[in-house]
Amino acid sequence: KRLVLIGPPGSGKGTQSPVIKDEYCLCHLATGDMLRSAVAAKTPLGIKAKEAMDKGELVSDDLVVGIINEAMKKPSCEKGFILDGFPRTVVQAEKVSSLISNDMFIGEKKLIQLDEMLEKQGTEIDKVLNFAIDDSILEERITGRWIHPASGRSYHTKFAPPKVYGFDDVTGEPLIQRKDDTAQVLKSRLEAFHKQTELVIDYYAKKGVLAQLHAENPPKEVTVEVQKVLSS
Ligand code: AP5
Ligand code: ZN
Ligand code: ZN
């Protein structure tokens, strides 16, 4: 399966990802997580991405398409993947579509008919899960979030507290808050979502692969909804 998770900041993409990943044995490709580790490691990519991320703006399409292209080549992604936080612009959506079709049709399958190939264009993504939610709920989710940077696991002081306050359940390592998880930066992130990413939702709706989730519900209810969509 090739899945895309799309939704505003704090809508629960990162929270639902591990459930889907384990159930379907897919790899989880979260551009936000990858960019944050690049920033922490001060790699050339991280240095280029930091300013936009701190302001809550989108990083350039070229940079994120580059990291996704690399990440999709991992052998663990053979069974399929979950794209979390990507694509976020129509340009990214079109790029990912051509990356996947290259993988599918060049090489051993290059004898496939051209019309078959065109038919596949743009539908290489099996399902796009839209984490639909009202903006007003998101500030509380974002400002209460704590993450374990190494694994990407997230917690919430009120909605998903760790077993020991301030520490990761699995490794016991300390939790941190994301630099962009302030009420102020959230405003820019939401603006980027409404201006740029909502067009990607329309794009996938037209392709007929969009599924709506009620992301305002408690995490377990959202999980049930996700499972229903994926088994249908
Ligand atoms: P990214 O890391 O992708 O951030 P985001 O899209 O803003 O999404 P979040 O991670 O904030 O939200 P989430 O939906 O994963 O929420 P979570 O499940 O953790 O991107 C960060 C930055 O990187 C961007 O601003 C941009 O600069 C750059 N970037 C990344 N990808 C890019 C791209 N493709 N192009 C350009 N730039 C890119 O949940 C949030 C909190 O709520 C948690 O504490 C959780 O415990 C809690 N919670 C979750 N679900 C529920 C629920 N159902 N009920 C109650 N609480 C819940
Ligand atoms: Zn996330
Ligand atoms: Zn909007």
From TrEMBL:
Residues 145-180 form the Adenylate kinase active site lid domain. Monomer. GO terms for molecular function: AMP kinase activity; ATP binding. It comes from Citrus unshiu. Belongs to the adenylate kinase family. Coiled coil: none annotated. Its EC number is 2.7.4.3. Keywords: Kinase, Nucleotide-binding, Transferase. It catalyses: AMP + ATP = 2 ADP. Gene3D superfamilies: P-loop containing nucleotide triphosphate hydrolases (3.40.50.300). InterPro entries: Adenyl_kin_sub, Adenylat/UMP-CMP_kin, Adenylat_kinase_CS, Adenylate_kinase_lid-dom, P-loop_NTPase. CDD domains: ADK. This is adenylate kinase. It is an enzyme of class 2 (transferase).
